[in-house]
Amino acid sequence: MVWKIAEYLGLALFIVIIPREMGPERYGEFAVLSSLLGLFALASSLGGQVVFGRFIPEFRMHGKEGLTRLLFSQFLLLRCVLSVLAAVVFFSLLQQFLPDIHTSTRWMATALVSIAAISTTAYQLQFGLNRLRLFMSRDSSARLLLVLILLLAGGEFRLERIVLVMLAVEIVFLLLGFYWSRKYFVVDRRLWRLSGIYRYLKFGVQFFASNLLLWVIWRSGELIVVELSGQGTEAAAYYNIANAITLTLYVLFTELSVLVIPSLSAMHISGDHEKKIRWMANILKYTTLGAWIAVIVVKSIGEPAVRLLMGEEYLPVTDNLLILVLALIPMSIIRIALSSALVHERPRANLWVTASALFVFIASAFLLTPKFGAEGTSMAVVVGSVAGAVVAYRVFQLGEIFGMARYWALSTVGILALVLSHSGLLPEIIGGVLALLLLLTGTFLFGILHLDELRWITGGRKRIS
Predict the structure, then answer these.
(1) What's the pLDDT tens digit per position in 392-431?
(2) Among residues 104, 139, 199, 114, which one has the least CA distance to residue 10?
(3) Is the dihedral angle over the CA atoms 270, 275, 278, 283 positive or is it negative?
(4) Which range, of 62-76, 79-93, 305-319, averages the lowest pLDDT?
(5) Residue 440, class by beta-carbon neighbours within 10 Å (0-12 exposed, 13-18 middle, 19+ buried)?
(6) 322 has a pLDDT exceeding 90
(7) Residue 9 has what pLDDT?
(8) Could you give the CA distance from residue 172 to residue 166 in angstroms, rounded to a whole number?
(9) What single string gives the DSSP state of each residue in 449-461?
(10) Distance of alpha carbon 400 from alpha carbon 398, whole angstroms
């Protein structure tokens, strides 16, 4: 909980302070750089978190600590090699997308990519060892540390200074990660026998590929805006801020889905099919409800909030945010498909879902971005998400889960609430409050939510089965 608070506090301070201090054009350069950094961080992960989370508990259960050390050390060696290749590609892409930034900034950013790829291995090891506080410390506190260090250093928000601080923070986390993992380093002949890692790498890469395709949708928007919109880095800045807010909500809902995967796996192994479906239906129901609430809240207070916190020059953020937040609704379906793929070991089926979403996103972006600018890219995210959700429904045969979740009834109530908030009959904030009341009241009236479920969630005695 402490690390999540640090993460959201860091995001809030970052969004309120950094864009305002840098201005749309300079922040747009940082947005493009952030997009590239995010994509390379994803590409270098190689499914390590899935592999460590799946096999290290098994090794420890059977007293095979030597295999844990060997797996970690071989992954680390592989990432060290790949980090060099990633640096070469990253440096060339920076020259293409950000040709005007200083050479020293380009080199520091390239070093950041390599160091981040290496340090990731140490933190994924902590995940496998179930040291979740250590695992979460890096990603949750990095943005907060960046803002605080910049403020303490005099509040100079140049791109060069920001990248320098990011590099320094990553080096600190690298050293910490290595310290926490110091007992798991192996230096002997076994380290070079990479044939042993192939089985684990193959397992991780199957899920890594589908996850990477999905995250490309979220992380590549700024690059598409710069290349296709003709609006320059300012439009990328507006898109980046809206995307950061939406992505935070997406990650929150994703974490809620991932937390129950061990329980779902246990139900699957024990043959308790009905309980497993009920749990998956509840995940779909509550993440979808959360998405509808987010859509209505953004519609009601998005513009005044952006004006108050960031200033008039950032009002175009609202236009992107109003569109992007809609993607959270179909993404709930894609997430439940991912949970099903993990529980039933169907990585190829999940790959079909994410590949379909990415293909439609790219095609839509090429059609919509030149005409509508950054808002067109935001539309493409929504269209791609809907396409992925449709494929997920068909491939994973989610009809039974949809029925238990009363998904179509929930969607109807959500649409009616959204129409009320858009009606213009009342001031936006009042209309938003009434829309939320309609949404929550409708879920009870139509039997979508039940009091016993809420008692269970809030720690009451009666638990849903």
Answers:
(1) 999 999 999 999 989 999 999 999 998 888 777 777 788 8
(2) 139
(3) negative
(4) 62-76
(5) middle
(6) yes
(7) 80
(8) 10
(9) S-HHHHHHHTT-S
(10) 6
Task: State which amino acid sits at residue 291.
Answer: A
d(CA 115, CA 122): 12
* CA dihedral angle for residue 163, residue 250, residue 397, residue 346, rounded to 10 degrees: 30
Q: Which amino acid is at 119?
A: S
- Give pLDDT tens digits for 33-78: 888 888 888 777 777 777 787 778 778 777 778 888 888 888 888 8
How high is the pLDDT of residue 26?
85
Burial class (CB in 10 A: 0-12, 13-18, 19+), 233: buried
**Among candidates 257, 282, 208, 277, which has minimal Cα distance to 45?**
208
Rounded CA-CA distance 72/82 in Å is 15
